[in-house]
């Protein structure tokens, strides 16, 4: 899976100011909506929140991967935010989240692309060096290259 096909510079915020998880979700949902990746902010946001209620997407190591399968999603997409200050995400390691990678998946691609993307990301995020590089990145192009690396 080539992550560079799922994201562009306008879907990245490297200095997001958010006070909590909900504000972060809203900001990334706005980016997806502005880039015409979703048809309804409300429906998509509700799907993300519903998924969080099933269990945290706070992966650990200051990273969260909120995701949603929804009819409001036009195409498989990804939005990323680095937070100026960490926010509580009920992460498995109880640490505050500083990097959020949000996945938007249309229902019809739910069982293929969704699992492939999550698998690829979670495998990469198990490597401490990779996470450190993501948390340190200050350039959108470098972030896309990092996420796209095999």
Automatic annotation (TrEMBL):
Sorted alphabetically, the Gene Ontology cellular component annotations on this record are: cytoplasm; membrane
Protein origin, superkingdom = Bacteria
Instruction: Name the predominant localization.
Output: cytoplasm
Q: Which PROSITE patterns match?
A: PTS_EIIA_TYPE_2, PTS_EIIA_TYPE_2_HIS
Tell me the GO BP annotations in alphabetical order.
phosphoenolpyruvate-dependent sugar phosphotransferase system
Cellular location(s): Cytoplasm
**Annotated Gene Ontology MF terms?**
protein-N(PI)-phosphohistidine-sugar phosphotransferase activity
Protein keywords: Phosphoprotein, Phosphotransferase system, Sugar transport, Transferase, Transport
Indicate the segments forming the PTS EIIA type-2 domain, all copies: 5-150
CDD domains in the record: PTS_IIA_fru
Kindly provide the name given to this protein in its UniProt entry. Answer: Fructose-specific phosphotransferase system IIA component
Question: What is the species of this protein?
Answer: Halanaerobacter jeridensis
